[in-house]
Amino acid sequence: MATVLEKPEKPEKTDKVPPAVAAPAARKAGRPMVLAAILVAWLVLFAVLRGRQTLTLAAADLTGLHRWLNDVNDSIGANRNSNPLFLYFFNEIRLAIDNLVTFVQSLISQPTGSRPVPQIGWLGVVGLTGYVSWAVGNWRVALLAVAGFTFFGLQGLWQESMDTLALTLSAVFVALLIGIPLGVWAGLSDRFNRIMTPFLDFMQTMPTFVYLAPLTLIFLIGGASAVITTVIYAAPPAIRITAHAIRSVPETTVEAADSLGTTRSQQLLKVLLPMSKRTVVMGVNQTIMAALAMVTIAALIDAPGLGKTVVQALQSLDVGTAFNAGLAIVVMAIVLDRVTTAAAGRAEAARRRGDHLLKWRRPLLGAGAVAVAVLVYLSHTFVWAAEFPGDGTVGSHIASAADTTTTWLQDHLSGLTNALRDALTNGLLNPFQTLLTDSPWWLVGAVLVALGAVLGGWRAGVTAAVCVGLLVGTGLWSDSMTTLASTAVATVLVMLLGAVFGVWMGRSLFVDRLMRPTLDAAQVMPPFVYLVPFLALFGATRFTAIVAAVVYAAPVAIKIIADGVRNVPESTVEAATSAGCNTWQIITKVQLPMARSALTLATNQGLIYVLSMVVVGGLVGAGALGYDVVAGFSQGELYGKGLAAGLAIVLLGVMFDRITQAAARRTRA
Description:
Radius of gyration: 27 Å
Strand content: under 5%
Largest sheet: none
Number of helices: 32
Distance between the termini: 28 Å
Low-confidence stretches: 1-29
């Protein structure tokens, strides 16, 4: 029998056995047994040591680190205009960005000098938006853009929307000014790409919240700081996607250009950039979406615009106002996304239609430019074309309808929503949170390190050990464990949704075509927007943040799992079917095991998305680290604690990311 098992040279038998089935039994059972042993040991020790060495810290208490950070903040504030580093570097950066923001705001959103209105009023802005959308995209996108921007005025949120747009455009301009050259460099140089990749991974791992606190320490609060924060958050997609675009140009094309005697700069300008234009434009799209998401959250550091309206409404539990402003953010995100997406596909669409339409496009664009110039002149000259007419009655009706709906839901569905909230909170969240917060800190730390080592290898274990040590050093261990509990519960729910809908999409092209546009649209919306409807349903509780996090993170997990299931070879599925497997067996014994790497990647992305949303939920009662950050912005004596909370969020994100990425690599291996 041993001799027969050692003969792999019979391909007709080997090909028919799915890889998951062919794996050695010991390897399949090894890790789960070790993980189970770790969890059992944890539960036993928890029963014995519960409540000891938990490192609990009251909301108003500060550690030595927090006081030191407060002193650093006070010292920087006192020496901001005398310290050479600030005087000649940081202050100059802030001044340059502030001038850029002020200039863009003076164009479209804020009065300047003796003018009671911006340089370009609403009629000119709508005309410019429609023209640019048509020029880079098509007439359908132009109509969408015009309708969307007109809707801002009808909502009574014209100035707030233009402030948000001004900050977004300023941040995108600077991010692309930095990101595209760095992306080209990373695309051309393997060495520079290796240097940049860890930094980009780290920057994209950090939740949006944590960028705010350290940068306000250097650049204070306001529009300039919001733009600087947004640039740092939005630049990585531009760098990474541009580098990928340059590296994706076929090597034969580059060799052909070499054989013609082109210089390095000629290759870049005449070959590499033109051939990678579509992908670079998609990088611009991702940069814009990231910038809009960050600009709205930057309202916490006094950035003007729609985000500020949402934050104030959430803090006062004004669902109607929050819904109206959140709807404006969604509309802006959809318009910006559709315009840049259409720009990426316009050249290809023009080639399909034929060159005979190009001769009409240029004269029409010229005529459109003249018409837009007239609209801009009118909006600059006449008040009726500068100030949006009306008093925002549409927005008042939307807010009133949202309040009425909220009241109805709370009156008629409170039994159902409260039952759902209590069942999940009492049945899953509270026990797991108690396990994390009431266990000795060193026991939880040892469990996290052991899980990291088992799932991701010794490097992941070392990373977990370093993160655990630093989490203890922040003085916010208990709050970190509370955030970890919410994140873990939400991630489990995300993966359940991802597995169900991902498998369904992966097995049915019809379902995929039906669901994917909705999932794509859901990924466009900034995180703030997700809080509003669930605030109406569940009130200001941590459960609200968990549900919002699940809905926010589920689309990316579903799409990754669907792609993984679809990539399982059809021959393997057919072999399982011919062997008599039913649908359930094919899914559980073939497709999901062979999509292990996709499942692990979905877990990685789900964790990062969930963590980002859970901490934002500090605005609606989620507490823990998110609350610490928000309190640090609003109460000066808690600034150091808020800064330490931002560091703790980063450490959780890094630990999650490294463990799940390492697990994904081990799965693929």
